Amino acid sequence: MTGAARAGTASATGTGWPDPDLRQWYEQRREASTSTVTQVPLDALRDWRTDPVTGDLGHRSGQFFTVTGLDVRGDGGPVPGWQQPIISQPEIGLLGLLVRRRAGLECLVQAKMEPGNVNGVQISPTVQATRSNYTRIHGGAGTPYMEHFVRPARGSVVADVLQSEQGSWFLGKRNRNMVVEAAGPVPAQENFRWITLRDLQLLMGLDNVVNMDTRTVLACLAAALPPPTRTTGDAFAGLVARGFSPTAGAVERDVDVLSWLTALRSHRPLDVRRIGLSTVSGWHRDRYAIDHDGGRHFGIIGVEVRTTVREVPGWRQPLLRPRGRGIVAFLARPIGGVLHVLARAAVQPGLRDAPEIGPTVQCRPENYAHLPMSRRPPFLDAVLSAPRERIRYDCVLSEEGGRFHHAENRYMVVEADERVPVRPSEEFRWVTPRQLATLLAHSHYVNVEGRSLLAALYSLAGSCP
Length: 465
Fold this sequence. Notes:
Blueprint: H1 20-32, E1 35-40, E2 48-50, E3 57-59, E4 66-73, E5 81-88, E6 93-101, E7 105-113, E8 121-124, E9 127-129, H2 131-134, H3 147-150, E10 157-164, E11 170-171, E12 174-181, E13 192-196, H4 197-202, H5 212-222, H6 235-243, H7 254-266, E14 271-275, E15 283-285, E16 289-292, E17 298-307, E18 314-322, E19 326-335, E20 338-346, E21 356-358, E22 361-363, H8 380-384, E23 391-398, E24 408-415, E25 428-431, H9 433-439, H10 448-460
Parallel strand pairs: 5-11, 6-12, 19-24
Antiparallel strand pairs: 1-17, 2-3, 3-4, 4-5, 4-14, 6-7, 6-9, 7-8, 7-13, 10-12, 15-16, 16-17, 17-18, 19-20, 19-22, 20-21, 20-25, 23-24
Helix pairs in contact: 5-10
């Protein structure tokens, strides 16, 4: 299996595996996954074709996704305009987590191989499938447990909401995030396991174990859970727990947070136009990849996949390969005795309702290395230079392994010092974790990186049902 096997390594703030049996199961599933992912020429991708007019790269069935081009203007940021490739996947996929109530809440997860994962297998939700996959366009096996989400029993739905995905790499991509309570006994099939919600949250402290799709569903579940209870002597954990409480005071009213975001959306900060992939300027294509002329941002490559643990034994597809490792971070601090995080209105060209609420910092630093210091992302240096005692969460987590090749971000929660003002600028607001969780009961308010950090915050807070 290609890629470095780094899963299961405790992060700087992780505590290791919560259950030795869980680790043994996970390692057994990884060893049983006989898989290889090999780069191949783009013109050797079976079942994919380059449109002779637009240059777009798409599947012959018209399903799955297309790599197309985008022209972006009017951002007002470090770069006023640009063109880029982007993945267009208009169909809505399903991310579903099946839960049951025992001594506490338990979740049915799977050890799932994705071709772009840096370590092959990561812990996924019960169901993680595009519409093309679960309608079996690939001609392979069906998706296990799909019936629980397509036809949920009356009263069994805990959370159900459409959410966006990476707005810099996807054009208008959305997935249906669902949590459904099992109506009766549900045995775990091969590659699946029932684990406690608390154990799943604790796994958030390990590098490259809990995949992106699980993290976003966990964040949506947070809106339906009672606030966590502090169970340790750690003062920061107590602050986080209180930050999820609906009775704790926030520096901004909920309606003011909504008004702030709505006003920014009304200004239409981006003018986005789809263009043919062959007309994208600043990028070049050779036999093996589509790359940025300056060697920044990302590239598009082709891969051949061979595996024993997926619906079909092999296929070829394009993947988006980022350059470098990203930084995704919340600055956090108590205001009035309640933990707040510094949220930013994240403007990304692929979001349907740009901007969405995102982390304080969300970037790949090397993409800004050629720019003057004044044009670096705000607070990036404050995060990177934070002393160890102020770093409360620090973990390397993978992004969508079905579309991205070895895409990793360093996720961080950093205690801010007094130099960070209460109102840094119009694009930032201090909000509580509870306010973010409440917004996640609705679509397109909190971006996918913000949802991953919200799931991480909940894991830091203490006990849960």
